[in-house]
Amino acid sequence: MRTWGTRFPKANLTGRLVNLGTYYALAALATIPLNRPDVIIAETDPPLLGALAALLKRRWRCRLVYSVQDLYPDIAIANGRLRSRVLLDVLQRGNRIAFENADLIVALGQDMAERIVAKGVASAKVAVMPVWADCGAIQPLVSNPFRAQFGGKFVVMYSGNLGFSQQLESVLDAAEQMRDDPRVLFVLIGEGACKEQLVARAAKRGPGNVMFLPYQPKESLGESLSAANLHLIPLAPGTAGCIVPSKVYAILAAGRPFVAMMEQHAEVARLAREHNVGFVVNPGDAAGLAGSIRQALAHPELLHQMGSRSRRLALERFDRTKVTREFGNMLTNVALMAD
Fold first, then answer.
1. pTM over the 0.85 mark
2. Which CATH superfamily, name and number, covers 35-132+321-335?
3. How sure is the predictor about 280, in pLDDT bands with cuts at 50, 70 and 90?
């Protein structure tokens, strides 16, 4: 069942709040004729959805699973996009209501689980369940028409939201540091709040080794991800555990290594180190990123081995069939919990 909602521009805070308000109100109304479910699943996007789910749990006297995709208000504080103490307090209170009423809280990574437990939530209520990748739809490709447009360059790719949490300015800094190496091309694929200023900066400074492309069709995701020699997964300082970049699992499925530009304890950085599928540099460290790219260029066999391990890890741990089966088993266990 889908509910209607207003679509005012998100850049305007008032419009964003109206959009959220109409969605919450209409979503609540849509539940009135519904029969009692065994389990309610609520995600954190949009914020405060968990608080609505907590009210429905009390009404229906059923179980509640709270799936944390973005941790609020932590992410809003970390990326500096929300400074209103009133709104931050509303987010904090809403999230607390959801945590207190949930029978199980699902985090995307260990770093996120640790942040949730640090808020006073019992560790027994928190489970880690990663995002899955469809390893059948996304596979390493040897013959790839999408890559032809890059002219045989060593492609360093970022694919995803060009937003505030990614700190992509440091990627452009690295591109400037490597402007004299004709082998390397930085490709940024996606849209987002920061795209316009990133494009303007690249055009103004003119390193000549940066290309921007729009989001690619979902059915072409395997081609676009496989076109990279090395992927970038940057996060701004302080955001580790607030979000876990889900793009990493599709990158693994495509059999490509990556550079995790984030804090050392972040989930994706841990994956890179423990499974040797990528490099790790500190957030915003443009020189460190440039160094990792030069290391990858100098050791193509190392990069190939990382890619092979990436694909194997995706098949063993993060394939859609495996993760959805585990999620289904988890829901069954919650539904059968004793009172």
1. yes
2. Glycogen Phosphorylase B; (3.40.50.2000)
3. very high
